[in-house]
Amino acid sequence: MNYYGYPDQYGTYHVLEPNQQTARFGGGQQPGFQPPPFGGGQQGFPPFGGGQQGFPPFGGGQQQSGAPSSPPPSYTPQESPSLYAVDPGAIRGCLYRYTYVWLSNGSSFWYYPTYVGRDSIAGYRWRGYRWVYYGTDLRRIRSFRCS
Predict the structure, then answer these.
(1) Start-to-end CA span in the chain (Å)
(2) Are strands 13-16 and 99-103 parallel, antiparallel or unpaired?
(3) According to the lineage, what is the superkingdom (predicted)?
């Protein structure tokens, strides 16, 4: 599955879902072009606090549909310690996949990421009996493993 994206004027790279494409070349629009998944705000500006489609609802927006319909695997994978900070490009490959996450504070859990930004990640965290929308700073993630 290929993921497409585009950088905004601040250098933040926004990932588009597989059924979306960006085709801005030289300022023009080409067939198949769909605007970024913000649904509001000025062109290129994410509506923080709004939680629009494809963007995490930081600041009190409503949760988006997209949580898995089944629980995560019943096992806990072994941690592979990382000597480096978690790179957004590396964890982006775990989008829409069951992912086990170890945080630097010692907690660990199954996660289903639906958004990866330059500094943050958002998706659904397994709370033992249901999925709960959750976002965190990438610097808080010690390591992760996709299933």
Answers:
(1) 16
(2) unpaired
(3) Bacteria
Q: How many CA atoms lie within 13 A of 118 on its CB side?
A: 8
Q: In whole angstroms, what is the distance from residue 141 CA to residue 129 CA? A: 23
Q: Which of 83, 142, 62 is nearest to 107 (CA)?
A: 142
| pLDDT tens readout for residues 16-63 | 444 444 333 344 444 554 444 444 444 444 444 444 444 454 444 444
Instruction: Count Cβ atoms within 10 A of the Cβ of residue 130 and give its class: 0-12 exposed, 13-18 middle, 19 or more buried.
Output: exposed
Which amino acid, one-letter code, is at 141?
A: I
| Domain 88-146 falls under CATH 2.30.30 | yes
For 29, the token pair is 């629009």
Reported pTM: 0.57
Three-state DSSP state, 68:
coil
